[in-house]
Sequence to fold (488 residues):
Amino acid sequence: MSAEYGTANISKIITTTFSALFKHKSQIPYQYGKHSVPARPLQPHLRFPASARAAMAQLQPWAAAEPRGCTLHSGRPLELFCGDCGCCVCALCPALGPHRGHDARLLLQAARDKQELLTVYLRNLEVRKEQQAGNRRSVEQAAAELKAHASTSKQQLLDRVTQLQLLLQEEERLARSVIDEKTQQALEAHGQQVQSCQEELAALESFSRRIREIQQCRDPIQFLEKCTEIEKEMQDSRRQPEQWHPIPLSFEHILNYYSYLMKFLQSILRKPLEVRLKEDVFTSLNATSKRDPGTMLKTVTPVDRMLFLKHARSPTWEYDSLHPRLKLSDDRLVVSCSWRRILYPCGPQRFDKLWQVLSRDAFLSGSHYWEVDLLHAGAGWWIGAAYPSIGRKGDSESCRLGWNRASWCIKKFDLEYWAFHKGERIPLLVEDDPDRIGVFLDYEAGILSFYNVTDGMTHLHTFRCKFTEPVYPALRLWEGSIGIWKLT
Ligand SMILES: [Zn+2]
Ligand SMILES: [Zn+2]
Fold:
């Protein structure tokens, strides 16, 4: 009820209502010349609703009017109201005076009509106030939810960064243990080398001692015998001594590796965060970041279909999920009941008990609008949307469209209409049976709305939900056929 009460519309309502009221001359007791218009009944849409009439009945009756005379015709009281000029005149004015031929009617009647009009206008203002208060509540709720979401997001961010820090600490631990292990191996080798040097030194020392002892021998025969004894050993030890050069063990390559890793990270981080989040190389579910903060989805009732056609889609049905008693048209837009079971390959996605099917196309961000043709759907049908996690086997609640957290639908059976989600049902007042229903999804806003296309886009129902999985158009059939209206 919002758009039709815009300022322009209100003035239009007032103008049309007034002109209709003032041209309705059957209530005027006088005939004012040849210009008067023949009486005609009030048009149905201008009749006051019963509630307005009840409100008017409570109005105070008019006080006795203060008698005032006409400025043009002295002595004549103001008895009429000229609708063309918007002023009170005497009975002579429309007959003889400047209001000749004007739309004039009894003063009290005119006042009463205006009073009625103001009552209707006040009612409309009440509706607008309610609407606006509703909008304020929605925005306030969104603001509160946003604050909570921001704070949990920051906590989660802290958790992820902490995880990243832990990963880096673990990486450091691993690199340190590589250094420790290599160092240990080298030190063990060096220890053995030092040991063998020491043994060699000790051997040389003892040999030197032996030679010095032989030198001190006074007996030349003994001396020469001892010299011959050690001659071979002396020749052996005269060979060129080895010089050892320990090759230093380097960990430069480990440090280099982390330098490069850091440079790589820096090359990513050098770009401003805002730009990186927009490019979002890690996920494709990034439509949210492309929206400006505080964006509002505005709808009016009755909505303009053109508004939705900007997001028009023509989803086709998924063969693999189709129940064996359902068949698809060649263009995959129409699902119909088959008189016999069809032999489809068994698969995990196929509904095996319920006559249901999901679309091939899923929506996981942005706005989408599709229309479902119900002209040949028969007495019962379910249309809506589902997560891919809806159950496929059996006919338990987890599989039934609208009976679980994973699906939403509008159901018709006989003359009754219901909105279904999580097994909770809300009765819908549908005045004219829809031949076609428009379904609008805004993933980020969490809105799934249904409109009666054949009845000038009358709003049927809106589900509000925080979507967490891809959303697939879905349906369930009772008889006949249901098709997607080709919009694209
Ligand atoms: Zn007058
Ligand atoms: Zn006039």
